[in-house]
């Protein structure tokens, strides 16, 4: 049984047209799943359906076999889902460490161990822990955002375009860090514009087009597929 499953996801916004048209997306613990596709394909909307921010007309979302389709976003956090938005995802006027502490806001237990694990995963954050997050580079801020999300000790990490706006070198570094996060046993689901690079590290890849699964396979299989390469990866 796959850990997080979105099955036949169907729905849109208000009375508007359907944006998701029966797509299937899933990710297991210790895996990275990547959603790619053209602008407007419904990638972010699919992410919202896992977060509980979209009213599905059809389909369901299960976590560890439990149906969470009708759970509110707050309740899903309690079930182990954490989300890192694309932008404005750190408190710029707080230090790195204060940002991590904010992530533990709802925890009543001792979170020092978790903070230590996050510093092991992201050594640059330990080095800069007393600096203001607003003074960090884009790639470092993204690490703060991911670290903060991990302070809730989630089992699933949802990332919305974690490498948006960073240089190719920083992108590689971020993907390396995300591989490290995966190796802790986390299920990682992300939307990415940098499709080729993201598929390189994807255990599961989903090419969405008009809210449907156009191509599905391991990242390597999709990268090797001539049709995917020609249509979605620039040849
Ligand atoms: N809050 C909203 N209300 C109404 N329509 C929306 C809303 N958010 C997105 N849409 C529409 O849903 C469609 C899919 O958008 P979505 O952001 O999911 O696509 P995407 O694949 O993530 O695209 P991009 O790569 O451009 O971010 C688009 O036509 C968009 O205009």
TrEMBL record:
Name this protein carries in UniProt: Amino acid/amide ABC transporter ATP-binding protein 2, HAAT family (TC 3.A.1.4.-)
GO terms of molecular function: ATP binding; ATP hydrolysis activity; branched-chain amino acid transmembrane transporter activity
Assigned keywords, A-Z: Amino-acid transport, ATP-binding, Nucleotide-binding, Transport
InterPro entries found in the cross-reference section: AAA+_ATPase (IPR003593), ABC_transporter-like_ATP-bd (IPR003439), BCAA_Transport_ATP-bd_LivF (IPR052156), P-loop_NTPase (IPR027417)
Domain ABC transporter, chain residue ranges per copy: 4-235
UniProt record similarity statement: Belongs to the ABC transporter superfamily.
GO terms, biological process: L-amino acid transport
Ligase among keywords: no
Keyword DNA damage appears in the UniProt entry: no
CDD domains: ABC_TM1139_LivF_branched
Pfam families (UniProt xref): ABC_tran (PF00005)
């Amino acid at each position: 049984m796959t850990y997080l499953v979105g099955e036949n996801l169907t729905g849109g916004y208000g009375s508007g047209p359907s944006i998701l048209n029966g797509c299937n997306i899933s990710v297991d613990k210790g895996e990275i799943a990547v959603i790619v596709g053209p602008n407007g394909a419904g990638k972010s909307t699919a992410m919202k359906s896992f977060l509980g921010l979209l009213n599905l007309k059809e389909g369901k979302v299960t976590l560890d076999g439990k149906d969470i389709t009708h759970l509110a976003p707050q309740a899903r956090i309690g079930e182990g889902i954490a989300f890192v938005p694309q932008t404005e995802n750190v408190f710029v006027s707080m230090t790195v460490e204060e940002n991590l502490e904010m992530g533990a806001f709802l925890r009543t237990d001792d979170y020092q161990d978790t903070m230590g694990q996050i510093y092991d995963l992201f050594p640059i954050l330990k080095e800069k822990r007393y600096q203001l997050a607003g003074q960090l580079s884009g790639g470092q801020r993204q690490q703060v955002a991911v670290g903060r999300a991990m302070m809730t000790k989630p089992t699933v990490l949802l990332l919305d375009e974690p490498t948006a706006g960073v240089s190719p070198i920083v992108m590689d570094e971020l993907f390396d860090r995300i591989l490290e996060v995966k190796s802790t046993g986390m299920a990682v689901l992300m939307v990415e514009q940098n499709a080729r690079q993201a598929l390189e590290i994807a255990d599961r890849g989903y090419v969405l087009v008009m809210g449907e699964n156009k191509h599905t396979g391991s990242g390597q299989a999709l990268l090797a597929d001539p049709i995917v390469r020609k249509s979605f990866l620039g040849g």
